[in-house]
Structure formats: structure tokens, C-alpha cells
Amino acid sequence: ILLALVVTASAAVWVILPARRSRDVEGAAKVASLPRIHPDYSEIVLPPNIAPMNFEVCEPGSRFLVRISSENGDPIEIDTRWSTISIPAGSWQSLLQANRGGDLRIDVYVEAAGQWRRYETIVNRIAEADISPYLAYRRIGPVHNRWTNVGVYQREMSTYRESVVLDGTMLETGCVNCHSFANNDPGKMLIGIRSSRFGSAAILAADDRLEKIGAKFGYTAWHPSGRLAAYSINDVWQFFHSAGTEVRDVIDVDSALAYCRFDDGSTKLVPRAADKTRLESYPAWSPDGQYLYYCSAPILWTESDGMPPAQYADVKYDLVRIRYDIDADRWGEPETVLSSQKTGLSILQPRISPDGRFLLFCMCRYGCFPVYQPTSDLYMMDLTTSDYSRLEINSEFSESWHSWSSNSRWIAFSSRRGSGGFFTRCYLSFVDQDGRAHKPFVLPQDDPQFYDSLLETISVPELIDGPIPVSAQALLDVARSEPVLVDAITGASKPAGSSVPWQTLRE
User: Fold this and answer.
1) Counts of helices then strands in the chain (DSSP H, E)
2) What is the residue-averaged pLDDT of the chain?
3) Which of 331, 380, 464, 500 is the most buried if burial means most Cβ atoms within 10 Å?
4) SS3 letters for 9-69?
5) What is the arrangement of strands in the sheet containing 150-156, beginning at the earlier edge strand?
6) How many C-beta atoms surround the C-beta of residue 297 within 10 A?
7) Is 348 exposed, middle or buried (0-12, 13-18, 19+ CB in 10 A)?
8) Residues 6+ positions from 244 with CB-CB distance below 8 Å
9) What tens digit of pLDDT does each residue of 354-405 get?
10) What's the pLDDT at 4?
């Protein structure tokens, strides 16, 4: 009996042959190593609701047989003359759902010169916990100083289906960025736009509201209540080094934190996180909404002459938090959670697990933009003890832009591994109850060679609990409309001791 018929994107037909094919490889010579496969989906923990993790066998041969099995359910056998292994979606999903918490074994046989070889079994584990069913992220072209080819997309995790949320090309000359969600809820979204024609604004899509807010939101964090969002105001400069794998660099010459209350549309500075002598950025709320975490560094220069300040490589951010009473709209005093003086590194992008247990952040040698820093690594802090450590999942390249699933068991993050440090890809990792992050794997695609020819960056991955309910056309219509008026933030921003206002206004 034929078990399945699989048709690849290249129109090659692969037939899964009768079970008697298994007898043909019983005498296969054993190879004392795991098979090389691409992408590397070996010795990982995978979600039970992930799309088939198709791969390419990187061992030379003229025929390949792959058997995927677990304790319960029928195994999947694929016999093909092609090295690319395409796994039937229905069989894959049935096998994973029937074996939550169990092992998933992958046996690879390769025939070369009439002789079959059997490699050691790849043993992966199927997690009990699902990953969030959708992922939102940015796709950016390989550019240095033009940002017109930028879009936000969403991907269904159990399939390969991708759809556009909003693309910058729809805004003529425009950029789409800084997408954020309240508690992984796709129905409560903010997305920033920068357009020479339609202005800089934030689109609010929450419940039945779809509005264009006339304020330039930077890095944004929703309050867990959904009643307001904190965001950064950044004067960002990009500059270039003369050599290196990554020649781009970024510095904030000024930044502050503000917040927008959606009940009256007002925007205000966070009183003690808009210090004219410091840089404040990357807000993140604790799950109970009582604390706003953020990153803060001293301003080391007194004026700017159009060039990056000479002290750019000395800027290191501390991790700080400040208490907030949402009903009284009252802020407390900042308190340092972790200082750069203690770590010797710049602390950036804090994100707290929804269960409130762990704080995931990155640290790099200096500065505010870890994606351009090969030294950027992910760290985890246990908030019950304040102990922190560098995660084992880091690579020699930049790791940044991370988010949590709503069940606190999965993280998605951006990494430049796998491309020689040139392109950012999205990786997924299981986090156990002790805060240990397990071996990461790249977001699966239908074609295992998808990333080899993709000349785009996939970054800022946000795990969400369903599809974004508003259409791209509806978002576009709002983006092209007149903004809802909000209170302007115009506090002066001149460092202490400066005789020349190098930036006259906070935006």
C-alpha cells in the first residue's frame, strides 16, 4: 500500500514506498555519527504545534530513506532520490500531538554506490507546551540607510502561511516598525509608521478602536491592563565603521520615556525617566503592571556637531525599574536592578516572562543597538533571586530582539548565526521551569534552503496568541488618514553644562 504522495515546490514527485522498503536497509552499515542535516533540527525540543520541519540530508548519496517515529502512532517513512526531505503535514501533526512530552526519533539511511549506510538516530523531544500559534516580525531588505522596503508580517506557526500586516511600500516612501502587543494579544496592537507623505505616527488597533495617533512612538511596551503604553523617544544616529563584518552602528544622542493613555489620548513624559542628563530606552512592564523596567545610561557629551560623539563606545546602559500606580497615574523613584558598572557591559531590551519569574535581556560591549553588535548575547535573570547568567544558546554573532510566548515556555529571538553574521533570522527556543533555554532552531520553512537565498532580514519577532484581526487594507486606510490629536511633548533636552542646544526639543 502506498502511504503518501508528496509534491515539492520544484514539481519533483516523491513517493513513499511500501513498508517492504524497510527490509532493504536492514543490513545497512552503521555510521558512528549523527547525519548532517540542514537546517540543524537535531537534539532540540520542538513545539507540538509546529509546522513540519523539512530538512536537507547533507550526506552524499543517490537514495535517501528517512523514518520519523515516536512511541505512539504510525511512523513516517520517506524514500526518495532527492536529498530534500518534505514531511507530510497531516502525519507530522498527528505524530506530534500523540506524543507530547515524548521523544521524536529521526533515522536517516543513505545509499551510495549500491551500499546503504545508517546514521545514528537523531533524538528530539516534543514539548508538552504549545508555542504561541502566530508570530509577527519585520522583513527588511539588505540596505544601509534606506528604509522603504520594510514590512511587518505574520506567520501561522503550525503551517508556513505568511501574510502581510502592513508594508512600507504601501505608504509610498515609508517605513513600518515598532509593532507591539498587549499580553501576546493580537487584538491589542500598536504599529509605528514613518512616511514622508503621511507623517510619523502610531496606529492603534485595539478591540473596536482603529486610530492613527499623532505621536512618534519608539520602542513600545503595553501596560498589561491595555489602558496605556509606554514608549521611548529616540534621537537615533546611524554611522559606519571602516571595516568589520558589521560596519553599521547606532547611537542615541538623546532619548527619554513617555506614555500614552488611550482613555483620553494624552501623552506625557515619565517624570523620572526623562532625565536631561541621561538616556532612557527599551521600556518593558512587569506582568502585574506595577513596575516599568527600562534601560538608562548617562549622557557623556555636552554638544553634538553633526558627528557621533567621541564617547560613543563608552556608553553603557543600566537596567532600571520604576513603580507606577495606574489608577492614580503616579510614578515612584527609579531603582537600579542591574548596573553596567557591575557587568562591564551595556544592558538592553529587557522582557519579562508572563508568569513574572524570568527576565530575558541582552548585553553587549557598548551602546544601545545590539543587533549591530556581534558581542550581544542573551542573559536570563531569575527575578525571585536576582541571579542572572549568560544563556548557553548564544552564538559568536549578535543575538537580540526577543519575546516570550504567553505560557512562558518559549522564546523567539533574532540571531545572525547561520549567515556569517550578515542576515538576521528568527530562532525559537524552549525554556524550562528552571529558566534553562534549550538548543534553538530556525523558524521552519517549507523549503529547507529558503534562508540560503533570502536577501532579507527577519527580525523583531513577537509571539502572539492568534492572527491579527484587522486587515492590511484597514491599517493602510488609517495610516493614510489624518491623525487623532494628542498632547505634544516638547520638553527641552539640553545636557547640563551645554552652552549650545544640540537638540532643542524632545519630540
Assistant:
1) 4, 37
2) 90
3) 464
4) CCCCEEEECCCCHHHHCCCCEEECCCCCEECCCCCCEECCCCCCCCEEECCCCCEEEEEEE
5) 162-167, 150-156, 134-140, 457-464
6) 24
7) buried
8) none
9) 999 999 999 999 999 999 999 999 999 999 999 999 999 999 999 999 999 9
10) 42
For CA atoms 75, 78, 79, 83, give the dihedral sign. Answer: negative
Other beta carbons within 10 angstroms of residue 230's beta carbon come to 24
Q: How far is CA 154 from CA 11, 103, 151, 186, 423, in A?
A: 27, 30, 10, 10, 19
What cell was used for 391?
Answer: 544563556
Residue 488 CB neighbour total at 10 angstroms: 11
User: Torsions phi, psi of 182, nearest 5?
Assistant: -90, 115
Closest CA to 376 of 360, 367, 364, 368: 364
Q: Distance between CA 72 and CA 50 in Å, rounded?
A: 18
Alpha-carbon radius of gyration of the chain? 25
pLDDT(13) > 60: no
CB-based burial of residue 301 (10 Å sphere; 0-12 exposed, 13-18 middle, 19+ buried)?
A: middle
Question: How many of the other CB atoms lie within 10 Å of CB of 6?
Answer: 16
Cα–Cα distance list, 217 to 100, 194, 201, 362 (Å): 41, 10, 7, 22
Cα(89)–Cα(151) distance, integer angstroms: 28
Burial of residue 497 (CB within 10 Å: 0-12, 13-18, 19+) is exposed
Q: Contact at 8 Å (CB) between 397 and 377? A: no
Which residues lie below 8 Å from residue 212, measured CB to CB, with a gap of 6+? 201, 202, 203, 204, 478, 479, 481, 482, 483, 484
Instruction: Determine how many CB atoms are found less than 10 A away from the CB of residue 377.
Output: 22
Local structure of 347: helix, strand or coil:
strand
**CB 75: neighbour CB atoms within 10 A?**
15
Query: φ and ψ at 326, to 5 degrees?
Result: -70, -35
Q: What pLDDT digit, counting tens, does each position of 408-463 carry?
A: 999 999 999 998 888 999 999 999 999 999 999 999 999 999 999 999 999 999 99
- Quick one: pLDDT at residue 141? 82
Sign of the CA dihedral 257, 261, 265, 270?
negative
The percent of the chain in helix, strand and coil, each rounded to the nearest 5, is 5, 45, 50
Peptide bond into 39 cis (omega under 30): yes
Could you tell me how far CA 230 lies from the centroid of its own chain? 20
Chain CA centroid to CA 110, Å = 36
Q: Find out whether 441 and 41 touch, Cβ atoms under 8 Å.
A: yes
Q: Of 131, 220, 228, 212, which is closest to residue 466 (Cα–Cα)?
A: 131
Cβ atoms < 10 Å from Cβ of 419: 15
pLDDT of 237-252, one tens digit each? Answer: 888 888 887 888 999 9
